Automatic annotation (TrEMBL):
This is histidine kinase. It holds the Pfam family Response_reg. CDD domains: REC_hyHK_CKI1_RcsC-like. It comes from Triticum aestivum (Wheat). Its EC number is 2.7.13.3. Residues 1-67 form the Response regulatory domain.
Amino acid sequence: MPVMNGYEATRRIREEEIRHGVCTPIIALTANSAEEGLQEAVEAGMDLHLTKQIPKPKIAGVVLELCKQDKN
């Protein structure tokens, strides 16, 4: 992203959510599989950290699971 990275975007989204009382699931999709990438995603407020190459069925399953959690 030209203006900010996904971590900063997530931080800003989370700040706005607090103001509006909503919660948006955010999944990091990255080529960085290192532990530091996972830690940065968690610290930014992301719900999940997935490493590329991800089969489409796995992505669909993760999204469906997050949708189920959101309804509870």
